[in-house]
Amino acid sequence: MQKYSILWVSLIALVISGCSTKHYSVSEPKIITIKSPKLKFADTGYIRHEGDAVEAELFTAGVAVEKISIDEKVCVSAGCMSEEEFIREYLSAEYPADTLRRILLGEPIFNGINTGEQCGGAKTQYIRNEKMDIVYRLKNDMTYFKDRTNGLIIKIEDLKENNATE
Length: 166
Prior knowledge:
This protein has an eleven-stranded antiparallel sheet. The longest helix is centred in the N-terminal third of the chain and has 18 residues, at 2-19. By secondary structure, the chain is α+β, with helices and mostly antiparallel strands. Helices cover 23% and strands 45% of the residues.
């Protein structure tokens, strides 16, 4: 009987000590496409955020297959690492550390350089040099990032808009 008491006390202490899941104030269903040398995904998911903390939970056929959490560190199923390490390993060493966080939050990247506004209110950034050729577009219902040089595509669309029947 004492064994079970110790087990329950240990479990409660573990949950209270911070190993519980983070709660986000915003949770939005999306259609998410990610194509990079290390990540390939195209299906539904959720983008959740609270302040600077952001999480993308990716589903295939209704089953959670990957979660990318960005807070103090970036955590994926392979483990946790700094944002700099994640960007270098999964995207490009030439990008600022906060690039993926900003894409998931739908914010300008690279300190907003080369931002222009197109008809319909879309904001577009073009970032080109010998190591990258980026088109980054922000619209109300879609975020689109493409780097032709590094073979990367990240597209995030509102799920509600695509399934509207009205």
